[in-house]
Design goal:
The complex is a heterodimer of chains A (137) and B (163).
Chain A: H1 9-40, E1 52-54, H2 75-91, E2 104-106, H3 111-116, H4 128-136
Antiparallel strand pairs in A: 1-2
Helix pairs in contact in A: 1-2, 1-4
Chain B: H1 5-20, E1 25-26, E2 41-53, E3 62-75, H2 81-93, E4 99-103, E5 108-110, H3 112-115, E6 116-118, E7 124-126, E8 130-140, E9 144-146, E10 149-162
Parallel strand pairs in B: 1-2
Antiparallel strand pairs in B: 2-3, 3-10, 4-5, 4-8, 6-7, 8-10, 9-10
The chains are: A mainly alpha (137), B alpha+beta (163).
Chain lengths: 137, 163
């Protein structure tokens, strides 16, 4: 015995619409996290704040060293640069499958120092990822 | 007696830590501390993150939340056992769902029985001048060398509802 069921094409359209809604919601959340991450970040040379990446598919994460960079970089322009980099990563998310494994990373060699104040005798850490996890985790 | 919600939350968390780590050196924030080489110490940091209305409407109760970071410093080269033991003690004392009842007037931790007043209808409410700091999570992170120390962070997520 055999029967054939035909699914109305509007059903697929509704599924597509649901996918888009979910994707837009998640992307909005990722933008919020990106904004918070750069706002919590200290800026001296700008190396740390411009080393954030969302890992989407292949590609090497950003990671800049502060060695040999001049201090006194513009706080707002460096934060905007870091935020725009993250927006670029988010724009590469095209489907729900791309969200299977997405991570926020900071690839600067001094990322741990910024987080916990390691190797700094006068300044405590900034706990950037610790705060992000608390707010969005 | 502290007079601000954050002062009270900090006092509750630090007092609970002090009661938990009897005999261990603690380097409180902005207090002069000279670590003794070769002796373990713990450095707590109080990190408020957000304050937001817990409900809609006028004059809502507020939800305060944040992190209490405790950085365990063990002597470099002494192996992980010493820091592991201290991290476990902290994580157990601040395990998820733990409630810390703090008597603001007397700067002391209370038991749950002493923290509440039973009402005529059988219900109960927090006694005056008592704050309840609830623990959402206690997570131990990866250890690293920060010469001459081996440091391991334990992040404790806390929240408080208050008017």
């Amino acid at each position: 015995m055999k029967s054939t069921i035909t699914v109305n094409s509007s059903f697929y359209n509704k599924l597509k619409h649901l996918d888009k809604t979910v994707l837009d919601t998640v992307k909005g959340r990722l933008e919020d996290i990106a904004r918070t991450a750069v706002d919590f970040s200290p800026v001296e040379t700008g190396a740390y704040v411009t080393s954030f990446s969302y890992t989407v598919g292949a590609g090497r994460p950003r990671g800049k060293s502060s060695d040999n960079l001049p201090k006194g970089a513009s706080l707002q322009s460096k934060r905007d640069e870091g935020y725009n980099d993250l927006l670029q990563d988010i724009s590469r998310i095209k489907s729900i499958e791309d969200l299977d494994n997405i991570q926020l990373r900071n690839g600067s060699p001094h990322a741990y120092d910024v987080e916990y104040g390691d190797n700094w005798s006068r300044t405590d850490g900034y706990f950037v990822f610790t705060k992000l996890e608390n707010i969005y985790g | 007696m502290a007079n601000n919600i954050y002062d009270n939350i900090r006092a509750a968390l630090e007092t609970h830590l002090t009661d938990t780590l009897v005999g261990t050196d603690i380097a409180y924030e902005n207090v002069a501390f000279s670590p003794t080489t070769g002796t373990l110490f713990v450095k707590p940091t109080f990190i408020p993150t957000t304050t937001q209305p817990a409900t809609r409407g006028l004059n809502p109760q507020l939800l305060y939340q944040g992190v209490f970071n405790t950085m365990v410093h063990a002597p470099e080269g002494s192996g992980p056992a010493l820091s592991d033991s201290t991290c476990n003690t902290i994580a157990d004392a601040f395990a998820a769902t733990t409630d810390i009842f703090f008597d603001i007037e007397n700067n002391a931790i209370l038991t749950e029985a002493l923290a509440f007043i039973t009402q005529e209808d059988g219900g109960r409410m927090l006694a005056n001048n008592v704050i309840n700091v609830s623990i959402r999570y206690a997570e131990r992170q990866q250890g690293r060398i920060d010469t001459p120390w081996y440091t391991v962070p334990v992040n404790i997520g806390w929240y408080v509802y208050n008017t």
